[in-house]
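Thread amino acids onto this structure.
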């Protein structure tokens, strides 16, 4: 492949940049196993492989941009969570991270339950054969139709998020002559150490019913008083991309205190406690996520200790990993279109995707890694900003990273750890076509979510 000459951008960053990196890595060709799925490797020819297949061949067959999901890695991570928590706890995969019918089947086969938060996610789960009693339905504003569909299907639990929803679910269940199992989502006043917009347990936010001022206790009273509802537990979720277990400890202590208050007032010990998800993954080499067995041990010890102190029977624990399972299993493959050095600053590398396939950098200031994957290079590192092709200056995929200085149009680069929230939050901005999701395993690749076409866009445009 020819290499186009272009003016040299900055080669080494000796001062802190606006983004993640302050110095180039020792080896630009190395692939950190923390941020790549387990079957990813670089061959002797320099081409990166996943599931035994070269990315160059995958790009020829499926095009770019595209998400490539390592099925073996997904299944391995799902099994690790199931094994870590054992049969005395429930693991609900958080479908909002990424959901497709293939993923639902994998979850079913690996023994995980599923958490959905919309009618569309519920329909996907049911159409792929997930037993309804293994589905939990979340959401802060479920529609009447969504609630009715969930109850008719027989979902295992509905997580109540407001006083209005307590009445709404009870009314619909009663009209269907059913008794619906429910949990109450409480906000426990713990603010996760994460981006403001994905911290979800402090009081000033849209989710849940606050423990403060006795609101959660009142919600319990109302739910227990309705024959159409079977209150089985309390739900808490403190945020996203969390590495420190201290927040979970505080949250568990406050939830157990509510369970004790319920017992003292109503003579009822609720049998379940759901501590939500939000466990972090490695997007860069500096991230240090905890393993599922470490998380399971820590959460079990926290809940058991607090329940013993309150003289409560230990409830059945549920957790909801989504990103922690699917996030590391996929990468997004792009083709480089233009390389534009800005003297003394950085080099802008434009790819054939952007914020339409990964909005997280623009939305959350998220950090990602990136690598040249179609070949190796001995060129010195240059500081780059990987940007998309959309008409927005904030259309940034990777804010600051290092790539080889001989990078040129036609090269393939990949951004790892894009399994969670990238395809789920993808859009048609600028009428972009959403990329396919391709599952790769044991030397075979298959499309599990196809690439959109212009016909798809025009079919929806009825004007």
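Threaded sequence (463 positions):
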């Amino acid at each position: 492949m020819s290499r186009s000459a272009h003016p040299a951008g900055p080669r080494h960053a000796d001062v802190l940049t606006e983004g993640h990196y302050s110095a180039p890595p020792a080896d630009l060709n190395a692939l950190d196993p923390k941020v790549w799925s387990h079957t990813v490797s670089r061959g002797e020819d320099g081409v990166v492989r996943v599931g035994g297949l070269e990315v160059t061949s995958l790009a020829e067959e499926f095009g770019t941009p595209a998400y490539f999901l390592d099925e073996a890695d997904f299944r391995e991570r799902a099994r690790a969570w199931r094994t870590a928590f054992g049969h005395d706890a429930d693991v609900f995969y958080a479908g909002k991270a990424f959901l497709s019918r293939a993923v639902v089947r994998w979850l079913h086969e690996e023994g995980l339950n599923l958490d959905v938060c919309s009618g569309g996610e519920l329909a996907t789960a049911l159409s792929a054969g997930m037993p309804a009693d293994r589905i939990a339905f979340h959401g802060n504003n479920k529609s009447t139709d969504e609630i009715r569909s969930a109850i008719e299907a027989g979902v295992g639990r509905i997580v109540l998020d407001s006083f209005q929803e307590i009445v709404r679910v009870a009314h619909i269940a009663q009209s269907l002559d059913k008794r619906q199992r429910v949990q109450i989502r409480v906000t426990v006043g713990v603010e996760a150490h994460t981006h403001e917009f994905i911290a979800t347990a402090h009081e000033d936010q849209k989710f849940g019913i606050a423990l403060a001022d006795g609101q959660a206790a009142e919600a319990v009273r109302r739910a227990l008083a309705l024959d159409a509802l079977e209150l089985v537990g309390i739900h808490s979720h403190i945020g996203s991309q969390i590495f420190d277990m201290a927040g979970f400890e505080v949250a568990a202590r406050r939830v157990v205190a509510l369970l004790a208050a319920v017992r003292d007032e109503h003579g009822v010990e609720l049998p379940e406690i759901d501590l939500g998800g939000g466990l972090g993954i490695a997007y860069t080499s500096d991230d240090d996520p905890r393993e599922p067995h470490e998380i399971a041990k820590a959460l079990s010890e926290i809940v058991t200790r607090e329940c013993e102190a309150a003289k409560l029977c230990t409830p059945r624990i549920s957790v909801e990993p989504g990103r922690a399972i699917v996030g590391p299993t996929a990468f997004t493959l792009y083709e480089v279109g233009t390389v534009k050095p800005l003297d003394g600053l950085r080099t802008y590398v434009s790819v054939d995707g952007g914020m339409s396939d990964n909005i997280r950098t623009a939305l959350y200031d998220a950090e990602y890694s990136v690598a040249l994957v179609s070949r190796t290079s001995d060129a010195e590192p240059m500081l780059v900003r990987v940007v998309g092709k959309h008409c927005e200056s904030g259309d940034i995929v990777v804010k600051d990273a290092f790539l080889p200085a001989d990078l040129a149009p036609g090269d393939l680069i990949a951004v790892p750890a894009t399994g969670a929230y990238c395809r789920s939050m993808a859009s048609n901005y600028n009428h972009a076509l959403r990329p396919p999701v391709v599952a790769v395993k044991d030397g075979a690749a298959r499309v599990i979510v196809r690439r959109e076409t212009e016909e798809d866009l025009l079919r929806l445009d009825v004007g």
